[in-house]
Amino acid sequence: MPPEQQARSLVIIRHGETTWNRERRIMGDADVPLSQAGRRQCAAAAAVLAGFEIDRIVTSPLTRAAETAEMISQVLGVPVTTDEDLVEVRFGHWQGKTYEEIIRDPACERFFQDPESNPTPGGETIVDVQNRGLAALGRAAPGLRTLFVSHGDIIRSTLCHYLKMPVREFRRIRVDNCGMSGVIAQGAATEVKFVNVLADADRAWVPSHWNKAT
Length: 214
Known about the structure:
Blueprint: E1 8-14, H1 19-22, H2 36-49, E2 56-59, H3 63-76, E3 80-82, H4 99-102, H5 106-113, H6 126-138, E4 145-150, H7 152-163, E5 180-186, E6 189-197
């Protein structure tokens, strides 16, 4: 899977699991560390990424992403830099609450129904989030393969762009903890190579956090 010479070769991975993921709790830009399960996911992903010829790693500065990037960096021997544009959606007063708690908020229903027009309590629409993510990915150097370590909604919204899906449908794309996606981008030409590949494939059929099942 060598990088194409004039294209931006992007591998995008969500951070490993945290205790808040397991509790179905909104993290947003709160600084939550990886759990032991998340560290195991990172180790498994790093073993797969060792065959991807990664040239550089760019991560969200939030602890769960930075820890994921550092674990992968130790295996790949590739330096890590940070990019604030990769930070997760700013959820304001929803942060720390469970999905069961926020669905009682009328603002949550508005955001879920029309995330392009209705911002989160932190002040972002999904279009704002997508634009941040695309700005970060757009800084990848042509001819190199860059691994981006980010968060669920950043990844979903940017994949909508590359798949030419309406961004309001971002929740249709499943992105698991340590799920890996690949994109080749050259100007307006884009090829999505793979979406949400897991090193530990048994997790693929576990109900996602958008569902009521845990």
